Structures are given as structure tokens and as C-alpha cells.
């Protein structure tokens, strides 16, 4: 990812003129110290990046410099050009990156330009939920503003059970999963995660906090997600079903164990609750048979018989 960041710095300096390390750090979501190291690396590699002193100072790229991207591989450029769903970033007020993409393409050798242009039109990553379901996050901008200035905030937060709690927190970072924003913040010396759509109100306290130099939101988020998934309750079920139908289950793959091979294999599925297991298995219809536990098997049998009785009655009425 560092190569991507160095290229982004060069493009930013070429497009924006004198740019401060703070602005580059905010744009690339890294620390200012990382930007200083990257600038040193670019200078050491021969790129004419120079410092501009003064209040409006920062870093700039020699205006006569022409970027030579002949050493950039097609796979590296394609990774940069894949269009991502912009909705989470639009919540923060960021626009499309199409202008940056266009600048990058224009600096490519002619032999590669046509292929990259075609590729950029053919791949799209959509992180949005189906049916337009999108969390409303009216407090996101206020949270992000306080986060950038390292200011503590007072929030009113609605828990999953509907209860409203008030807390004073230090906002460390934001993470978006599909279309939902989550806030990582310290409360009473413990890092916690809050769903931003449940934040009812935000008030700055006027107090600043010291942001830890070793904190990395991506590293924290991946570790937190893993622990969260492992902490979820488990209701173990054994199903007999065709392997090709397993992907229809709306459940994490790590909670599915294939017990044997064959046309209709046995699978141990770790659902969270009895209700979830009932709902998911009924949605499969005749594609799955409950082997264990006995109470779930009986519940599924009763539900199927009830459905069959309803349709029998309607068929009899039509005769």
C-alpha cells in the first residue's frame, strides 16, 4: 500500500501546488510523521519534492517535472482504478475520485492508456445494502470534526435495547462496514465501538485529548471484528443438505463445518439463536433436513405441517 500512497502524494502535489503535511495526512488517513517519511523517500528516490517555508508553507513538486509511469505495472494501476461505491465517503462530504483517476490515466504511456481506460469501465465494487437501506448519520460530520481536532465530545447514544445513555468520549477513528459507520472512541480508559446512526446528539466538551501515536484504525477494527464474531452466542445444529445449497445460508463461513463428503453431506452450523436457526432453515424448504437437535427438528416439522395445512384448506375451498 505504500507505493499507492507515494503515487497519491505525487498526484496531489502536482494537482494542488503547495500542500501541507497535515492536509496530505488527512487525505491519505495516515499520521503527519508518515507523510514526512514518505516525502523523504520520494526525495531520496530522485523526485523533485521540496519544502516551502512560511505560514502557507508545505511541500511542492517542481512545476517542470513530468511523471514517468513506465515502471508502474498494469495490475498496480488497475487496483487504483477500480471504482468503489462512494456512499460511505459521501457521508463525510467527499466527492468522486474520477478527476484523480483521469489525471493518472493521462500520465500513462500511450500503449497502456487504452487498456486501462477500458478496464476502469468494467469493474465496480458496490458496498451498498440492497433496497436502499442506509443508516442515517446526522451526527457523523460533528464527530469527524471533533476527531480531526482531537477534542472530546459528549454524546447521547441509543443502545440496541432502545435505552439512551450519555457518555463523554475521545473519538479516535471511524470505520465503515458496508454502508454503516462505526465510531471507535475511548471512554473511561477503554476503547469502545459505537454505531454512528445511534448517536442522538453530539456536544464538544472543549477539552482536548492526546491521540496515541501507535493507534491504527484499520488494525484495531480488524482485531475488534474478529473478537466480536468469536464472542457471539452459539446454537449448534447439524443439517443434511447438498453442499451447493450451503451458500444460501446467511451466516459466516467460519461457523459452517462440513462433517463428511457426498451428494447430501452433514454440516454443523453454528447459529446464534434458536430463532435464527428456525428462520434460516425454513427459508431453505426441502433443501435441508435437521438432524440435531431434536427440539429444532420437531419445530421445523410443525411449521411445515402448518403451512401444508393452510394450502390444503385453500385448495379445498376452490373445489
Describe this structure in words.
The chain is an alpha+beta fold and 319 residues long. The chain folds into 3 domains: 2-125, Arc Repressor Mutant, subunit A, CATH 1.10.10; 140-230, SH3 type barrels (Roll), CATH 2.30.30; 235-318, Alpha-Beta Plaits (2-Layer Sandwich). The chain is 40% helix and 25% strand. It contains 11 helices and 13 strands. The protein has helices spanning 2-16, 21-28, 32-44, 74-81, 87-91, 98-106, 110-120, 140-148, 217-231, 274-284, 294-318, and strands spanning 49-52, 58-61, 83-84, 124-125, 151-158, 164-177, 180-187, 190-195, 199-208, 235-241, 256-258, 265-271, 288-292. The strands form 4 sheets. The protein has a 5-stranded antiparallel β-sheet with strand order 8-7-6-5-9. A 4-stranded antiparallel β-sheet has the order 11-12-10-13. α2 (21-28) packs across α3 (32-44), α4 runs parallel beside α7 (110-120) and α10 packs across α11.
Strand content: 25-35%
The CATH class of the largest domain turns out to be Mainly Alpha
Oligomer: single chain
Q: Could you describe the largest sheet, including whether it forms a barrel?
A: 5 strands, antiparallel
Number of structural domains:
3
Number of helices: 11
Q: Report the helical percentage.
A: 40-55%
What's the total count of β strands? 13
What is the average of the pLDDT values?
A: 82
Which regions contain 5 or more consecutive residues with pLDDT less than 50?
none
CATH superfamily of the largest domain: Winged helix-like DNA-binding domain superfamily/Winged helix DNA-binding domain
Characterize the overall form.
Answer: extended
Question: How are the strands of the largest sheet arranged?
Answer: 8-7-6-5-9
Give the terminus-to-terminus CA distance. Answer: 69 Å
By helix and strand content, what is the structural category? Answer: alpha+beta
CATH topology of the largest domain: Arc Repressor Mutant, subunit A
Amino acid at each position: 500500500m505504500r507505493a499507492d500512497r507515494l503515487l497519491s502524494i505525487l498526484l496531489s502535489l502536482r494537482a494542488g501546488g503547495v500542500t501541507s503535511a497535515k492536509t496530505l495526512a488527512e487525505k491519505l488517513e495516515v499520521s503527519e510523521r508518515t507523510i514526512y517519511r514518505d516525502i523523504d523517500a520520494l526525495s531520496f528516490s530522485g523526485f523533485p519534492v521540496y519544502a516551502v517555508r512560511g505560514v502557507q508553507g508545505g511541500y511542492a513538486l517542481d512545476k517542470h517535472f513530468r511523471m514517468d509511469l513506465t515502471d508502474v505495472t498494469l495490475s498496480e494501476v488497475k487496483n487504483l482504478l477500480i471504482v468503489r461505491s462512494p456512499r460511505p465517503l459521501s457521508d463525510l462530504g467527499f466527492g468522486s475520485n474520477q478527476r484523480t483517476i483521469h489525471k493518472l490515466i493521462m500520465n500513462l504511456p500511450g500503449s497502456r492508456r487504452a487498456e486501462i481506460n477500458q478496464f476502469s469501465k468494467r469493474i465496480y465494487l458496490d458496498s451498498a445494502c440492497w433496497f436502499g437501506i442506509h443508516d442515517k448519520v446526522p451526527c457523523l460530520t460533528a464527530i469527524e470534526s471533533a476527531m480531526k481536532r482531537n477534542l472530546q465530545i459528549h454524546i447521547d447514544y441509543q443502545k440496541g435495547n432502545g435505552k439512551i445513555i450519555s457518555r463523554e468520549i475521545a473519538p479516535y477513528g471511524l470505520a465503515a462496514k458496508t454502508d454503516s459507520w462505526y465510531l471507535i472512541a475511548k471512554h473511561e480508559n477503554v476503547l469502545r465501538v459505537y454505531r454512528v446512526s445511534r448517536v442522538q446528539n453530539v456536544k464538544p466538551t472543549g477539552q482536548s485529548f492526546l491521540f496515541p501515536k501507535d493507534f491504527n484504525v484499520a488494525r484495531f477494527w480488524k482485531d475488534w471484528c474478529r473478537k466480536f464474531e468469536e464472542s457471539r452466542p452459539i446454537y449448534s445444529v447439524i443439517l443434511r443438505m447438498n453442499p451447493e445449497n450451503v451458500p444460501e445460508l446467511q451466516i459466516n463461513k467460519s461457523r459452517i463445518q462440513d462433517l463428511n463428503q457426498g451428494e447430501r453431506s452433514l454440516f454443523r452450523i453454528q447459529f446464534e439463536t434458536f430463532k435464527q436457526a428456525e428462520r434460516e432453515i425454513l427459508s431453505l424448504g426441502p433443501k435441508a433436513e435437521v438432524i440435531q437437535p431434536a427440539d429444532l427438528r420437531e419445530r421445523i416439522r410443525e411449521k411445515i405441517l402448518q403451512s401444508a395445512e393452510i394450502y390444503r384448506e385453500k385448495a379445498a375451498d376452490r373445489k
